[in-house]
Amino acid sequence: MLGFVVKRLGAMVVMLVGLSITVFLLFSVLPADPARLTCGKSCTPDVVQANRVRLGLDKPLTEQYTTYVKGIFAGRTYNEGQGVAEIDCPAPCLGYSFSQQKPVTELITEAVPVTMWLALGSFVLWMAIGVTGGVIASLNRGRWLDVALQSTALVLYSLPTFFVGLIMLIVVIVQFGLLPYPDYYPPTQDFPKFFDTMLLPWLTIATASAAFYVRLTRTQMVETLGEDYIRTARAKGLTERAVTVKHALRAGLTPIVTAAGLDLGLLLGGAIIVEQIFNLPGVGRLAVGSVIDSDLPVITGVTLVAATFIIIANFVVDLLYMVIDPRVRLS
Amino acid sequence: MQVAADHALEAADSAPALQGLSPGKLAWRRLRRNKTAMTSLGVAIFIILVSAFAPVVCALLGVSPDGNSDLIADAGRPVSGPTLAHPFGIEPGTGKDILALLLYGARVSLLIALTSVVLTVTIGVLLGTIAAASRGFVDRALTWLMDLTLTFPQLLLLLALSNVMIDRLTALGVPGGNFSRITYLILFFAIFGWPYIARIVRGQVISLREREFVEAATAMGASRRRIILTELVPNLWAPVIVYSSISLPGYIAAEATLSFLGVGTDASLPTWGKLLSDSINYWQTYPAYLLFPSIGLVITVLSFNLFGDAVRDALDPRAGRV
What we know:
- The complex is a heterodimer of chains A (331) and B (322).
- With 331 residues, chain A is mostly helical.
- Chain A contains 14 helices and four strands.
- Chain A starts with a helix and ends with a helix.
- Chain B has helices at residues 2-14, 23-33, 35-52, 54-61, 98-134, 136-151, 154-171, 178-208, 212-219, 224-232, 237-261, 272-279, 287-315.
- Chain B is globular, with a radius of gyration of 26 Å.
- The two termini of chain B are 39 Å apart.
- The interface between A and B is large, with 46 and 41 residues.
């Protein structure tokens, strides 16, 4: 069992290294001139050249990469010994945003809690709705409740998230004024305002995702409910509730956990659309803003962090398999 | 005893020979009997046809996607709601016919989605098959590449790379403007979409490659290339159809989302995404503008999803018997 954990951990580290190299290459080789992107519209050839030297973009790629990785673990100092004000970027340094005059790490750590609240809230909602809906549908297989649940899920699943979000915003906030305009406050500071702001974003993400989980859970349940051990469980005289939850649902849980873990990881890396619509200062909006400003260090940093969340989610899912499925534990 | 056997023989002679059906034929029969599947397939084909021949259909219906200031009253308001001449209404501000916009928009959206699906599936099937058929190092490397590709936050990368990549493409000689924008979208979808189907195909091939017919081909001295192309790949059509029809609506929705975020095509080319994000502004003053494109999108996406579901059910020998 320990061997399994160590092996997965090793795979995770290899993946992180591969990822950082790819992201780094993507953003240093593809743009015609990364230095040109450091100053946006105010660029003059002199500024571009100065930034190129300041950021070490004139050095070979391998050296740039090692400096970057070293910065993550040990921090780095920009403009060192160049006669300009030195900029300190403490570890973990993911680069420095010259357009926002802040270390990238700081920008990301400011944005992560917002995204985290968004992700966790909608996760709880969509799992509760999705799994319950799927179980109910499978227990009423072929009856009208099943058909109704499935068709609702399919329609909701067919709509793009931005569309659902905008409709909610327009109907609930603009038309009927049921909630105030979104204005983010941390929950510790002003919980009612936080809740009012987050309610629609949570619902938006939950709507689209729950639809998928209703379908997934139903498929899994229909499959496991047909197994012989379910008949055995019923024959033993177990209550229908125990049969459904402990036997059928538990056995069909693996793909649901896989999908849930990956979706959550993906969401933690920034819910671009929903944050954009509801004006939430999270990772997704930071990313969009940096794309508009061509703020390359921030784009690179956010991509790296977002991908790391997905890799960690993968790892957690692997560990959860051991809890759910004894076969993984034993092998 | 003897009599009974004779009787049985006789019965077998007189009855028409029982026809054996291949699993493929059985699945096809199940699919044909499924009303939802056939309806959704019909709708999907209808949508593909009317959008492919959008100019002809528009001419027949007498609607035009061009702006018409005669249809616009003061403050950009259309002169009328939906009428017989303009069944889905008129676009506020420009006077373009919404039905025509919807048809022309479907063309672009479906072109992007269909090409992306074809590319994704081709790359996915090839690399998935190669991974499974070659085992060892190549398999491990390709599997790792699939996992790595799947860890990228795709929407973020798509946004981040859009300007640089479109510049690169035009520098490579791809015609600028919408053409390079569409090319970028399709290439991006293909590069980041193939691992999903590749994983499925790899799993399928791993179970196929141990089967007798592959062994027989190997024994007859068939080359690896021949085994992959003529023995393995033809057995993959089932997962490919299911995956294609389920991923196609995903790409339509993705294109819509990107238009909303401002990365899609520019204003001169209507797409469903652009229609939806523009029409939101008029939801109160001119609801038809929002209503018809959304219904169009839902019907399209729904028909492909339903068809994909039905194919999967038809291919599953256990479905309907549990």
